[in-house]
């Protein structure tokens, strides 16, 4: 009985090894490479950008999304919450949370639109202006730090291609409209070029 049990265990071990080898073979045949996958590399780049923001921006309770909202409001003077969300690429739920936080801090005020009572119009308070202005230079420094491994020419190329990937125009004012040079409608997903197998 003992010899039979030992033989069965050895056979099960062999089957497990064969199964593992088959799994590895199928994985290799898939061509998947985590370190070369665009989504993974972009996520790592986002982590770098977040780290740079935390190192440079001295307002430790401020998030990149909150600063993006403050800067956009300052640029426009006053803006609807819906448009603010579109320009800063935040969904309605996220922009609502961001605006509530800025309201709580006394950095912005909201009022109803004179032409459409359903629209919430946001502007900076005097405190918000004083708070935001120094941060603009700091966030510019963040951008320089994020791209510091690249040459000036590489930075321009990188930003141009990255904006093309995410579907924004060169002014950074939200999604581009109209048709792109390749005929696809901007803001809509077009069929991607087939990537290399190492992808």
What portion of residues belong to β-strands?
5-15%
| Strand count | 3
**Helix fraction?**
55-70%
Gross morphology is elongated
- The strand order across the widest sheet is 1-3-2
Q: What do we call the CATH topology of the domain at 34-166?
A: Arc Repressor Mutant, subunit A
CATH superfamily of the domain at 34-166: Winged helix-like DNA-binding domain superfamily/Winged helix DNA-binding domain
Total helical segments: 7
| First and last CA, distance | 51 Å
Class by alpha and beta content: mainly alpha
Q: Helix and strand succession? A: HHHEHHEEHH
Average pLDDT score? 82
Profile the largest sheet.
3 strands, antiparallel
| CATH hierarchy, class of the domain at 34-166 | Mainly Alpha
Task: Please explain how this structure is put together.
The chain is mainly alpha-helical and about 200 residues long. It has a domain at about 35-165: Orthogonal Bundle (Arc Repressor Mutant, subunit A). About 60% of the residues lie in helices and about 5% in strands. The chain has seven helices and three strands; from the N terminus they run αααβααββαα. A three-stranded antiparallel sheet has the order 1-3-2. α2 packs across α6, α3 crosses α6 and α4 packs across α5 (about 90-105). The longest helix is centred in the N-terminal third of the chain and has 29 residues, at about 1-30. It is elongated, with a radius of gyration of 25 Å. The termini are far apart. About 10% of the residues are buried. Residues about 170-199 have low confidence and may be disordered.
